[in-house]
């Protein structure tokens, strides 16, 4: 028990150190840990891919210690993507929830440049850590399985540490850098004409216990875009404050 606590403490320290020292001069996807989203279990967010190495699913799982998976737009059925990976990912470890999304269905998204992808790990039996090596988002025009663009994380490998499990994620958020955000917005000026997919891969042997997921989210200038329900609650709260103020007057 004491050893596991020490290991978790060391893992957290290393993850923090990596966050502080990594500063890629130019990258398509930038690690942006400023905000955390919680309560985001499977199905509660717009999940792109769910991966778990060695689950024994015949014909689709690569039992080689390398956890890797992706989703690619299938023009015939966007909700049933293919698993043909880009950016050099092996793929093959997809399970559970895997989907691609028309950009106009991504909650709060008003520009393709505001896309973000979140990596949610679930490794309670492996000291709560994994090592991320590859991550990408891809944009497709409706009717074509060939991507308009693929935006990859090109920074150093990242040690990810998370104790909340698959229902408590959001620390590891990646957003488009300025140049790629402008490119995405130019490629997809009409959100309903574009689809987003993506992929993720981890260092061989660094995963074991549970499924990891990546999901897509809207950001605006590095700030999470509130869900419509949250906006409504904020509006009611503001209205209540104004009413109370008037009564005092």
> How many separate structural domains?
1
- Spatial extent as radius of gyration: 19 Å
Summing up helix and strand content along with how strands pair, one would put the structural category as: alpha+beta
The string of secondary-structure elements, in order, is HEEEEEEEEEHEEEH
The helix tally amounts to: 3
Helix content: 10-25%
Question: What labels describe this entry?
Answer:
249 residues; alpha+beta; six-stranded antiparallel beta sheet; disordered N terminus
Note down, in words, how this protein is organized.
It is a single chain. The protein contains 3 helices and 12 strands; from the N terminus they run αβββββββββαβββα. The chain has 249 residues and is α+β, with helices and mostly antiparallel strands. The protein has one domain. The radius of gyration is 19 Å and the shape is globular. The termini are far apart.
Quick rundown:
By secondary structure, the chain is an alpha+beta fold.
Describe the secondary-structure layout.
Elements: H1 2-21, E1 29-31, E2 46-51, E3 68-71, E4 101-102, E5 115-120, E6 129-141, E7 147-152, E8 158-161, E9 172-176, H2 178-187, E10 194-202, E11 212-220, E12 223-224, H3 228-248
